[in-house]
Amino acid sequence: MSVLICGSFAYDTIMVFHDKFKNHILPDKVHMLNVSFLVPGMRKEFGGCAGNISYNLNLLCDDALPMGTVGHDFRPYADWMDRCGISRQYLTVVEDNYTGQAFITTDEDDNQITAFHPGAMNESHMNQVPRDAGIRIGIISPDGRCGMIEHACQFVDAGIPFIFDPGQGTPMFSGEELKVFIGQATWVAVNDYELHLIRQRTGYSLQGIAAQVNALIVTKGGEGSTIYSSGTEIRIPSVRIAEIRDPTGCGDAYRGGLLYGLSHNLDWETTGRIASLMAGMKIEHEGTQNHHPTRWDISARYKVSFGGRLEFG
Ligand SMILES: Nc1ncnc2c1ncn2[C@@H]1O[C@H](COP(=O)(O)OP(=O)(O)OP(=O)(O)O)[C@@H](O)[C@H]1O
Ligand SMILES: [Mg+2]
User: Fold this and answer.
1) Least distant ligand from the CA of 224
2) pLDDT tens profile 11-53
3) What is the domain partition of the chain in residue ranges?
4) pTM above the 0.90 mark?
5) In a mutational test of the pocket of ligand 1, which residue from 197, 250, 268, 286 has the highest number of ligand atoms less than 8 Å from its CB?
6) CATH top-level class for 2-22+41-306?
């Protein structure tokens, strides 16, 4: 049974400046800022929320069906998806647009200057949630604003339960719009900052949100996550990491694990642990789709981290 993953696809270009921005930005001259940073280190990565979540779910099972809009420059990403065996059935190419892209420059203090070009992502409403395609559950992750609103309504109309995962798209929505999403969703997954923003805009308490959904999942970086479901609070620890290489995309990896547990009817404890494990394995690698554990590796690491058995059917 398939999992429809609605959200962005993007190229991430990551450049490393071997100095500190503060040595080059003069505070009394910011009204005429004109700086150029020489960046000898540069990587280009496949990213975007739907791309990353699908990649992680695909490590666990064969059910990932991403849905998104991409540009005329998508060929290398398409080849990568084909090599990974991820379906492109619900991707739409918008020929006169670029694929979304982020240009991230990092300095020695870990400060970042980012430019994000949404490109084809802003056309995500061109896609529609397919009916009668054997889709069991879905997720609305950050995407074009219209697309997120329309896809949530289409999930409801099709009777498909879904996770509302507004991520970095949260600020695009008013309190009233967020209330509608929460009312439509079966599950809500956010980090602690996004929860704070939603609470501020809607006036809802944490319990007020949790009471409206089957589960509210809140991630808290290295402190792990908490799943609020049916009046109970399940604490999920983060896994021990060999080396923190790059936390970018750990939220998406976590959601890949969540979708696996939900689509296989696992209990919350196991589902949360798989999610935490997927996030942990991602953090040990640079980029969002450069970890390649086999299902055997995932089972073995699960046993080491949590002591139980995880079997893939
Ligand atoms: N330092 C860490 N060590 C171990 N696990 C971590 C660490 N940081 C994050 N995680 C795991 O990843 C999950 C998601 O992290 P976080 O709350 O930072 O998500 P996020 O802010 O949405 O991240 P993203 O930058 O991907 O959007 C955590 O609940 C935890 O399981
Ligand atoms: Mg996130």
Assistant:
1) 1
2) 999 999 999 999 998 888 888 888 899 999 899 999 999 999 9
3) 2-22+41-306
4) yes
5) 250
6) alpha beta
